[in-house]
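Hey Z.,

So I finally got round to the adenosine monophosphate thing we talked about over coffee. Here's the setup:
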Amino acid sequence: MTDTTFASLPLAAPIQRALEEKGYTTPSPIQAKAIPVLLEGRDLLACAQTGTGKTAAFALPTLDYFANNPRKPFRRGVRCLILTPTRELAVQVMQSFETYGKYINLRMGMVFGGVSEKPQIKSLYQGLDVLVATTGRLLDLHQQGHIDLSQVDTFILDEADRMLDMGFIRDIRKIAAAIPQSRQTLLFSATMAPEITKLANSLLNDPAEIRIAPQGTTAEKIEQGVCFIDKGNKQKLLIDLLESRKQEHQTELSLIFSRTKHGAKNLAKKLNSIGIKADSIHGNKSQSARQKTLDQFKQGQIPVLVATDVAARGIDVKNITLVINFDLPMESDAYVHRIGRTARAGESGRALSFCSLEEVALLREVEKLIKKQVPVERKHRYHAEAIQALHESGARVEKPKQGGGGQRRGGGGGQGRSGPPRGKGGNQGGPRSGGNRNFRGKSSGSASNSSNSAGSNSGGNPRPQRRNAGRRKTSNP
Ligand code: AMP
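And the result:
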């Protein structure tokens, strides 16, 4: 946390009130750095892991803009568009907007795959101030004419690195092409891989740059460990660990990562069969089933959750004190995301990785990324000295094959996108809603100050000119 307080930041009164109610007094480092530049209307490129408070870092200034610039969105129109890699993260982001924006009269909605389009289409009809979306469903609905993106003036990409990992780069570009150029754009990513920099260069305009943790740095408060173990013993060690935890840490939650959907399902089944209450969350489950499981986990009704990477991306549950990498991830970045599920909001936590002979190369990649060696955990019955020796020898080892039990990139069903895959033709370069129809309804916007509670900003006067004043030609009708 920082020396600044929320009360000292020029955020509108309704937001301050919501923050007070939530009990947040001090901004996290990313919030302290990002909020002032975003309030100035600048674009932002932020490198920050989950758990740093990045959602409020973009939600608070966005809500402040709405509080100070109330106007009705046009029919099917969207004012602020937030893209997330998964449905779970979309839900988390929406919950944050609802929490911090509870005293601002706003219309907000979500679109993502795996559930019926109808209620989403209905919510879009009236227009939305804030839309949180995954890319596939958003493009489907846009192509069908249910969304008008021509009045988006705030465009936020959350966990952009993950979206690229999942292969959504082309979708992102299509969406960006359908949004007016004169907008404020924010890009959040846990890592700054070269592809992210390239994407940022093409989407952002002279952005402020904030790096909260150097690339790949793992949260300091997480106690990490690696168990060298034969593949066939992994389940037994997991059971040992969970059994002893059941006695000592009854109310704490454990999150287990499996590389495959089947692995996750079977592991949860096995744990239940021996009396450890567990469930799984993966891309083969329907959205409502995933949400239900997640809610039960949050409430502690299910103390153990087995998840795949994609499904776990949006998990923001405070009381997870143990993360176990039952399988090491194929992509080392995922390690940082996985273990970041514990030690949320400044709490401490433990992350244990099981490393079999086949996974030595993966562990080396992780250690290269986090720039340190993961301490070896030997205090268990299955310690495999030979695997540790191989790891430490530095001898060449092959990475396991992606296909054989590894999870296909993006194959976790993050979005459950309906319809056939889009070919190159699609709407690329020619968005239906017409990029050059920017702010087509500016006169109607000025007429509709429907948000009654929104105008009461702390500074008194609304600040309509602040954001992108130089770039946004028609933002102040
Ligand atoms: P995020 O990185 O956005 O996923 O946030 C991580 C967690 O930190 C969430 O549970 C937030 O509710 C919580 N959080 C965010 N900002 C603050 C703050 N300033 N003070 C305390 N908790 C916070």
